[in-house]
């Protein structure tokens, strides 16, 4: 078996083949030699309680070759080279291969991954342009709990895919067009005394009109709606303003543009606090596609895909039927000549393929929109825009955020929970936990430092709670649980990071440094806890590669929790600063690599890695 495989990436960093990959290749080669007809069989390398790894392929192979599983295991074992990477192979049970790795092989992985800031992770997504559609708030509306999951999951995927080499294009599909803006603009013009710009309002009421610019605008819209429903003359003026907006009237457009700008200002405040990498440059609202809608309709009609039905232009699905057994329709143009979000989404996917050159398009939208995207993708395929052989379009669904009662999260009055209020609650809970922790240790921490730590812990807790479970499942928003120092929480991971930093800090205070290389690291055999931690560290790249394929950030979150847990076992079993010579050097190197891996993993989830807590 060849030693650790290293290849240079385009950026010049070194990619390291994991031991999982090396073992899969080596055992796969042994199977091919022992049973040539079974070449390509998966060796099924898995973790083991009895060795470093276990190969479980013999049982499946035995059925195919008509032999006893232990006989198959023996024959395969005879073809496995022992010495450089595999130290020992033992057959157990009905035919499992227990693989013990050499200390030298384990340490080579550590040394290779310590080089460079990529930690040996290969850029497996290089050459793929990925367009990610996420967050998607509405202009003049407050961001609320319903925007949390799209923003957090989408941002994590964007970070991970970028790190893996993909050319990621972030797209924030804002709801910024429609008849409601005519109503709002008319009301604003008639009530200039009511503030709504960020320079005019003050955050005096977290739930009221002055909470933010979008809160003020939302309140104005509700007032406009009330007048619209009761005052026919105002309703006529509002309808005329819609026409003026759509016709490009200069004054109307100027007010609309200012509303968009003020809303973006409020969104940016949320994104900055949440640590979401979306900016105004990533925003492409419904209005952006408005001028494309006529062409989209004409192209679909000319291709014979869009047909007139009851005065409307629709695409009838070839794949989906409704309760009446009739094809489900995707609305291209309404009977009144207007366009809705079906048409906008058709224009959007066409633009992202033709103009942005997407190889992969990800829509981070909740599970309830599954049918809509199925119809959009079908229409795009039939129109020839979406070639599945060249472009992958995926709806990446997610579940809901639930309240303590297990129902969709609402305020006590039954309203939608502002996202900023949600974050405030988490930070307040984290502040209590952090303060109590400092007092229990007798540590004096300044108020400013406490508030900074609480902000990092609270925001990290919210994001980790969202990302640590499968995205398709609902989860309960429980600030007490998510800000706990113990258990599978973001705070636990952040605290683990501070412990690693503390070890390295105390080492520096004693004049000790983490050596660049530790050539004599395995003159003294590795302890079991060291081996377990090295094997866990070695899985980082494989986990990221899995996330790139299945788009499940919870795999990374779970890996980081396991890494932190295994590090705790190592910390308790293997003294670092109390050890000496090459053993101390290697343990300092292991701590440093673990800290860097945990920090990188947290960053890819969009979570801060504080140095003190």
From TrEMBL:
GO cellular-component term (any): cytoplasm
InterPro entries with a match to the protein in the record: aa-tRNA-synth_I_CS, Arg-tRNA-ligase, Arg-tRNA-synth_N, Arg-tRNA-synth_N_sf, ArgRS_core, DALR_anticod-bd, Rossmann-like_a/b/a_fold, tRNAsynth_Ia_anticodon-bd
Domain of life assignment: Bacteria
EC number: 6.1.1.19
Coiled-coil positions: none
Residues of the DALR anticodon binding domain: 493-613
Gene3D superfamilies: Arginyl tRNA synthetase N-terminal domain, HUPs, Isoleucyl-tRNA Synthetase, Domain 1
Residue ranges crossing the lipid bilayer per the database entry: none
PROSITE patterns: AA_TRNA_LIGASE_I (PS00178)
Catalyzed chemical reaction(s): tRNA(Arg) + L-arginine + ATP = L-arginyl-tRNA(Arg) + AMP + diphosphate
One GO molecular-function entry: arginine-tRNA ligase activity
Main location class: cytoplasm
Domain annotation Arginyl tRNA synthetase N-terminal: ranges: 21-101
UniProt key word Ligase: yes
Keywords noted in UniProt: Aminoacyl-tRNA synthetase, ATP-binding, Cytoplasm, Ligase, Nucleotide-binding, Protein biosynthesis
Subcellular location: Cytoplasm
Motif ('HIGH' region): 137-147
EC class name: ligase
GO biological process, one term: arginyl-tRNA aminoacylation
Complexes and interactors: Monomer.
Family, per entry: Belongs to the class-I aminoacyl-tRNA synthetase family.
Name the record gives this protein: Arginine--tRNA ligase
Organism: Occultella aeris
